Amino acid sequence: MNKWFKLGAVAATLFLGACSTSTSTTTSKDTVSQAQKNWDAIEKAGKIKVATAGTLYPQSFHTDKDNSLTGYDVEIVKEVAKRLNLEVDFTEMGVDGMLTALDSGQVDIANYSIEEGSKYVDKYLRTEPHKYSFTSMVVRESDNSGIYSWADVKGKKAAGAASTNYMKIAKKLGAELVIYDNVTNDVYMSDLVNGRTDVIINDYYLQKIAVAFGKDTFPIKINEGIYANPYSASFSIKLGNDVIQQKFNEALKSMKEDGTLTEISKTFFAGEDVTQPKDLKLEKIDFSDVE
């Protein structure tokens, strides 16, 4: 579970960001024809090629027991493929290379969530959302890190990976940014407890898992009730591959209707159902002007 804060850019794009919904696209007759040909090729091969990170708990990671690839996103793809009578050919790669892999045809689907407002929104198709979440913060249990509202983040030392939406939020709120690169959860937690940092802003469900995992060692907590910026996560598909998008969405819809998606969610998110948005009071923090 120590891969939570290693989300980095993925946290800003895969989960963690803003609302993500499927993209409706108007295509020409030739494009639609090519989209069908692309799907026919997948069916003929009997497999669909998917890019995933393989390092991001609990979405895409390897088990300690036998090093097999699993995770919430991974198991969704496996079940979708099963319902489409396909096998899955996973290619593990860094998030930065996933859209390029889509463009080149190396993969058919990328485990990469494009957030609303991103420069990529109109350049790729998105599946229907499979996860809904929001932004929260982790603070010291002893003194709340002196933070009792989002406004109190001003002047505090915020820990995180560079260029994520979470660090952009911290910057927007006037925090001092403390940048980490590919470190484990215990480093983040230890620095928070000893005062090197004051707050960690990230995805609520990921923080909940991480805090529960480290509670016996690190006296930290989620700052309950201080939440912001709801968002949803989806998979990305090359623009023009409408048939792949349609087939994926149909299978995903059936998984929602028969409860399979919820079961997978509860398996990887400690009993939580992330397939539906929570009815909570969420503050909106606009960081669109933050570089």
Automatic annotation (TrEMBL):
Keywords: Signal. InterPro entries: SBP_3_CS, Solute-binding_3/MltF_N. Pfam families: SBP_bac_3 (PF00497). The keyword Mitochondrion does not apply. It is found in: Cell envelope. GO terms for cellular component: cell envelope. Residues 1-24 form the signal peptide. SUPFAM superfamilies: Periplasmic binding protein-like II (SSF53850). It comes from the Bacteria. Residues 47-272 form the Solute-binding protein family 3/N-terminal domain. Gene3D superfamilies: Periplasmic binding protein-like II (3.40.190.10). The keyword NAD does not apply. PANTHER family: ABC TRANSPORTER EXTRACELLULAR-BINDING PROTEIN YCKB-RELATED, MEMBRANE-BOUND LYTIC MUREIN TRANSGLYCOSYLASE F. Belongs to the bacterial solute-binding protein 3 family. This is Solute-binding protein family 3/N-terminal domain-containing protein.
